[in-house]
Structures are given as structure tokens and as C-alpha cells.
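In this supplementary section we document a worked example of the pipeline. Step one takes a protein sequence of length 348 as its only input; no multiple sequence alignment statistics are reported here. Step two produces a three-dimensional model, which step three serialises into C-alpha cells for compact storage. The input and output of this example are shown verbatim.
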Amino acid sequence: MAEIRQGHGGGSHGSGGSHDEPAEGAGHLMAPATETKEMDHAAMAHGTMNHDAMGGGMQGMMQKMMPGMMGDMAGMEMDLNDYDWDAYLANDRTLADPEIVRVERGGRVRLRVINAAAATVFWIDTGKAAARLIAVDAHDIRPLDGNRFGLAMGQRLDLELDLPDEAGSWPILALREGARERTGIVLATAGAQMAKISELADEEAPAFDTDLSQELQLEARQNLPERAVERSHMVMLGGTMAPYVWTIDGAVWGQHRPIFARTGERVLLSFHNMSMMGHPMHLHGHIFQVVDINGRKVNGARRDTVYVPPMSMVTVALDAGDAARWMVHCHHMPHLETGMMTEFQVTA
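The serialised model returned by step three reads:
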């Protein structure tokens, strides 16, 4: 298992201010809820997992607008890496002294990569080691071959690697999106020689999944059971770099409007990002399935954290669980700290 994260030093965001890294669990205390009117689209009530009804109401209108929005975005600059850090770590070590994992010649390795960073998206690059992505957020998907896969904060990837039947070493690197910094671990057979790996790549890694092409390739091995959709919510994601404030449905935590559902209801949540930063959206206490990406219906991955790039919309389906007030928040911790959190309020 490899846990990828940043070092302990403070960072600064793009507006030039200086900030300390948010404390672990910051913003998790929940203030009293206020009653608000939920956005419950009656037109959705008769849909199934095929979601044929999604063309109606506000949801259908937003989907029709998505191509134009993506076109408008072409001339705009996406904000990346609003915080810089003094170190990037894999299992608490930098590439100056990476963890060496001993492997056998011709062996098969299953590697779970956890993005435990507060504010950094990474690409996981397996280099010359052939890999298959077999699970996301601990839920099996149909295997996807490749040697570079991205993951946002809070997400997990399970990779299966078949190593050559020879002595050698194979770096597994985590590349900071839009930058040269990198970290990682090294898989190595006994006695293998290992060259020193620079903590800076020769060129910047690209931004992660701006067109959701990776997410579109992910297909769950087991779909949610088909049933009628009983409730639907549009969840608007917004915010600015200056002032540095991030919102859900136009409000910061404490002024938020809860998302309501009843235990057992099939619910659709459409995360619509109108900001120029990507947001990994996490729902506590539930597993959901990605069912629509920018108006394209999919039988996508089952997850608990989904990345929503700028000017995009991702819809997830879930069955409301135990009666409680469940957090919904961006897993970019400075965004959460400045207000990007609401609650999924489930009643019996």
C-alpha cells in the first residue's frame, strides 16, 4: 500500500496569501441544521438506473448547456495547485530516500494507492511495469490497462502489476498535476541496482481528467440495483481564488442548506462545478455509482469520492442510508476549511 501526501510545511494559494495546512479533521463539527425547501424534481420519480427521465427539468436543461459551457471554458485558465508544499511524500518518505518494496522475479503485485494529501492531485505512473486498474475507492471495476492513472484527494486506486521475470527495479511514481514535483516508492528484486530518482521531473505533468476521460472508462463490476428514482438534487459548486472562499449552492458551511432524503430512497445528486478549480466531492456514510457525466449516461464506477473538473457535471446515484446528518464536502481541505461543505440530512 502506498499513501501519497504532502509534507508538513505551510503553503500559499494563488492569491499570494500565506496559510497553514488545515488541521486533521478541520471543519468536521456540525452546526445545527436549518430547514430549507429541497429541490425535488417530480419528473425524475419514474426513472430507473437507465435514468431516461434525466432529460427533463433543471437537470435536463443543465445537460443541454454543458457543451456550450465546455466551449466557453476553452479560453479560460484552470486553477491548479493553489497551495505549494515543502515536500511530497509516499509512505512518509521522499524520493531522496524512497521506500523499497522487495518483490519476486515475474511476480504479481497488488498495490493500493491512497491520496491522503490535503490539496494535491497526483498521477500514478508505473513506468515500465505493466499495470491494470482493478478497483477505485475499494470497489471493483472492469480492469483497465495502462501505466498512468490519476487520483484526486481522498480517492484510492488498486493496481495489479505483472513484473518481468528478471532482476530489476521499477519505480512507481506519483506526479503532481500541472507541476514537476514527484514522489513514489520502488519495487525491486533482491540485490537489484537502483539509480537515484530526482524529486523533479524533466517536464510538468498535465492537469488531471479535465474532460473526465478517465472517469468515462471506469465501469463497475456490480451496478446498483435498478429501481425508481425518488429524489433528485442539483448541487452547485462554486468559489473564487480572491477572496479565497468556496461554496456549495452559493453558501459556506454554517449558512448552508441541507440536502434532504428519507432512508431507503433512491437519490440522484448532480455535482455541477461552475468554478475554475476541480473538486473531489465526498459523501460520508454512503457508496454511490456514477451514472451520468456531462449529459452522457454511464454505468460508471461505484465510489465515495468523485472528481468534478471545472465547468463539468457528474451525477451519482445512491440509496439513502441510516437516518443521520451526513457530511458532503470537497476533499480539497483548504476548500472545505473555507466553507465548501454541506450535509445530506436523512430522516426515517
